[in-house]
Specification:
With 264 residues, this protein is of the alpha+beta class. It has helices at 2-10, 15-38, 44-67, 126-146, 174-185, 195-224, 226-238; strands at 39-41, 71-72, 76-77, 81-84, 89-91, 97-99, 102-105, 108-110, 121-122, 157-158, 164-165, 247-249. Helix content is 50%, strand content 12%.
Length: 264
């Protein structure tokens, strides 16, 4: 009798049959929904925000060293070039850049790869500091011509050949301007302050405020977008930037829903 009862419950149309189907259907729906939420792909806003965060991090990382008056070998100033610490000057190519069987270092093309400088930092020469000041002065003139505040969004890029290109859209990047000011202010005894330095001195407080606002924007965006935070974590651990097609799995929670025993 008991055996017959169980059989009737399990056979097609029985109570347990329909209950089992409901559980399986609910489980299937939940798993499918969770799986669809597992992979997050970078949006255009994620990419833009990650680039901004990286720029801000780089400026903060360099601040202490630049304020000490020292500049690291191959430090890049967009629009000026790369710093070679042994020559204490800026050049258009990175120290050790290879091309056509030769290597560039300290303003010369060498037949052999140059050794890694030691120490890897130095105080810039008067010539290098004057180049920085002249670049700031040109930026001031550009801002006047365009009738816009300097330090707007920048299009500073470095080509695959290792040379630096500076695209003037609405001025240099605020971070680059701020770092140049730190270089000059920490080495005031090494050059004659002129219009470029005075311009930077007058603008530096506003540049600092702009960077603070940008940092707050990044923090707010990260707090409301868990997927973005995971992308940035993955980018830092892998050493690759967040770009189109970047994706990350897991860690976001799930927006999926499932059937429950208390459902209607």
């Amino acid at each position: 009798m008991k055996s017959s009862s169980r059989s009737s419950l399990l056979r097609k149309g029985g109570i347990l049959h329909w209950s089992t189907l409901c559980l399986l259907t609910g489980s299937s729906f939940t798993l499918t929904s969770c799986d669809s939420e597992q992979t997050y792909t970078a949006t255009s806003e994620d990419i833009k925000m990650a680039a901004l965060e990286q720029q801000l991090d780089e400026v903060e990382k360099r601040k202490t060293q630049l304020l000490s008056g020292e500049i690291e070998n191959n430090f890049e100033v967009p629009g000026l070039g790369f710093y070679h610490c042994e020559a204490k000057d800026f050049f258009p190519y990175r120290h050790g850049f290879a091309q056509d069987g030769k290597w560039f270092a300290n303003g010369e093309w060498l037949a052999e790869p140059p050794s890694i400088p030691s120490p890897s930092t130095s105080r810039p020469s008067a010539v290098a500091l004057q180049k920085v000041q002249q670049l700031l002065e040109r930026e001031q003139e550009l801002a006047k011509q365009m009738g816009t505040p300097s330090g707007g969004s920048s299009g500073d890029t470095t080509s695959s050949s290792g040379t630096v290109h500076h695209h003037h859209h609405s001025g240099m990047g605020v971070g680059s301007m701020m770092m140049m000011y730190w270089m000059l202010s920490a080495n005031r005894g090494g050059f004659t302050p002129g219009a470029g330095f005075q311009y930077a001195q007058n603008q530096q407080q506003g540049w600092q405020q702009t960077m603070s606002r940008d940092r707050q924007s990044v923090s707010s965006y990260a707090a409301s977008n868990p997927g973005y935070s995971r992308l940035v974590q993955q980018s830092r651990s892998s050493g690759t930037p967040v770009s189109a097609g970047s994706s990350v799995r897991g860690g976001f929670g799930s927006k999926s829903s499932s059937f429950s025993s208390s459902g209607s």
